[in-house]
Amino acid sequence: MSANLYQDHLTTRKNQEAQAVQLLVELNTLANKGVNVLFFGNRIALNLVDIIAHHDKNALNIADTLAFATALNDQNLSHTTVDLGQALKSGKQADSFTSGDEVPATDVVLYGFGRIGRILARLLMSRPASDKGLQLKAIVVRPAGEADLEKRASLLERDSVHGWFDGSVVVDKANSGIIANGRFIKVIYAADPSEIDYTSYGIDNALIIDNTGKWKDEAGLGKHLQSKGAKKVLLTAPASGDIKNIVYNVNDDTIGSDTIVSAASCTTNAITPTLKLLNDKYGIENGHMETIHAFTNDQNLVDNHHKAERRGRAATLNMVMTSTGAAKAVSKAIPELKGKLSGSSVRVPTPNVSLAILNLNFKNPVNSSDELNAFIKEATESEQWQAQIAYSDSDEAVSTDFVGCEKVAIWDAKSTLAQENRAVMYLWYDNEMGYSTQVLRVAETMAKNA
């Protein structure tokens, strides 16, 4: 690289950093007014590197974004969502946005603090501090021994898959709680929901997010509603009986005033938005879904007795055939696909990020892989689907590239196979982070439907 070219790059970077500093001020001001700012469906981390990367990736000028954000602040916009990337791309003006209704605070309790519980806590605590919207007030875990509080805090702070928590975690032993990014989270020890009076902790009309998977029917999950201070329940697993299995942006409009709702499974969430797109466009006759799934906590690390077939064999040494209800569960979100999809699963020796393979027969011809990829790419760039589905066309993409991705699925364009009325398609998904992001979207919808 010549000296002049190097100097040009350095000057450009310095200018970007200077503009990004000003943009940070405007974005913080918007956040304090309750404006949820996105960039092509992605949350913007309030740091210089993330802001510059988003602009470089999408070939947009920070100066233009700065001017737009300043205009939004000038009109005192509040309590709404603005996608700055989409606004700039489509040529919208700041005055085309209007303030929304103020979002009331909703107390949230995480019942269970395993993989999904801790990811949900991280996502909630990574948001700007506010007295509106979802407010994580407590976690409920089984009674445990000495130093349990410190262990829970350490597990929130350190994660072998997702790295360090973005912020501070402090143990408040005197009050049996954890302070994360300045916000107090009460740790409640209980063996059953019937033991808990949430109001005694200053918690009322709470949304209980059950991450234990212990109860999946109305009778079991209804125990939560018998607890004083609990109002609604959201299950982070597929539900049985008449409980609705909700996939955000597909059938979340059916929640209504329901007090018990399921956010379905990670795999159901990964495949359902794309299946809806494909069914609306081409019409799905039938097909099969295979998930190559990261091992989970319900498997054994070494060979040992297990109530489920094959899951007793060592998870880190074997590919393990198992079952999945994801394909069947799709029909709860898309009724017209009932009976059209079969499904199976293989657990593999990776701790996170899975791959769903869709082998489908269509009513209408897809003609070619290029046509199908172009259709999906256009959808992933639309305001409707950009937050759920991402598009990858890299020859080098592998599973670890998608650790931490908040999109519920990533379409692997290089692997698409399509001819006439048949196609095989591959979807990556972070089965922890992507799913947890969807769970919170469902939680927000439940909270609004007071």
Low-confidence spans: none
Measured between the Cα atoms of the first and last residue, the distance is 60 Å
Net shape: globular
**Largest sheet properties:** 9 strands, mixed
Instruction: Please give the CATH architecture of the largest domain.
Output: 2-Layer Sandwich
Write up what this structure looks like:
- With 450 residues, this protein is of the alpha/beta class.
- It is 32% helix and 25% strand.
- The chain has helices spanning 3-32, 48-57, 62-74, 84-90, 115-125, 148-157, 218-225, 266-282, 326-333, 369-380, 433-448; strands at residues 35-39, 42-43, 80-83, 105-111, 133-141, 169-172, 177-180, 183-189, 206-210, 230-235, 244-245, 260-262, 284-294, 320-322, 341-348, 354-362, 367-368, 389-392, 409-412, 417-420, 422-429.
- α5 links the parallel β4 and β5 (133-141).
- α1 crosses α2 (48-57) and α8 packs across α9 (326-333).
- The chain is globular, with a radius of gyration of 23 Å.
- The mean pLDDT is 94.
